[in-house]
């Protein structure tokens, strides 16, 4: 299952007192001469894909799968030198694209959760999930980021916004021996995720909780206090303000040795997921910021509660 994958990282280390470090004497990379044309073409194609998806019900199938596949590839690997110009040109469509991506991801996860849980050979069916390799690479990246700032493989992990196909927690439990608690506001999504984990023989726990509430439920706060890792899914919190509110409550509940991992996005990937940076999360001490340049879509912030 893609154990031999290699990936490159673009890593920015951020502390409260650090300044950006640049190499003196090295010019900035030149944008290609046709960057302007590439930006126009890319922006037009992104809008066209948005309109194509809006003409569907977003449920998995040949047309929807192909359209989302092209959208993800274009956001992850745009032509060089045109990201800023593309974002300016599609600014009016960002909410549409993110809404479509969120809805489509939920439908895709539910579809595959049902397929896996109902299959005669659930493990073999899980192997057929087209984005399995991306999840494996993302967890590998996140564990490396945690190790880079002194956190080990978590013994106890809480995954917030686990959804109906909770692959992150399943990978942590199955491959790294973590005790995992899946948390989602949707009981149906939790039930689907539990059915998948049970079908493939991976033991996890689940808890229904709405993180947008004014305070964390007492049982969830206790789980967070005892966890080594709390992971905030990319779709938990619609924008930076919502994520700030959630992470402030997490920081208040976290123990002194708890790592807080926040998934975000950068570049054109922000058309798929909300963007959040260290400055948007004043309740956290952000230790590391990781931006992949591979097929992995999410960026990662590794943080802890201020000491």
TrEMBL record:
Secretion signal span: none
UniProt keyword annotations, A-Z: S-adenosyl-L-methionine, Transferase
Stored PANTHER family: NICOTIANAMINE SYNTHASE 3
Protein name: Nicotianamine synthase
Organism the protein comes from: Pseudonocardia kongjuensis
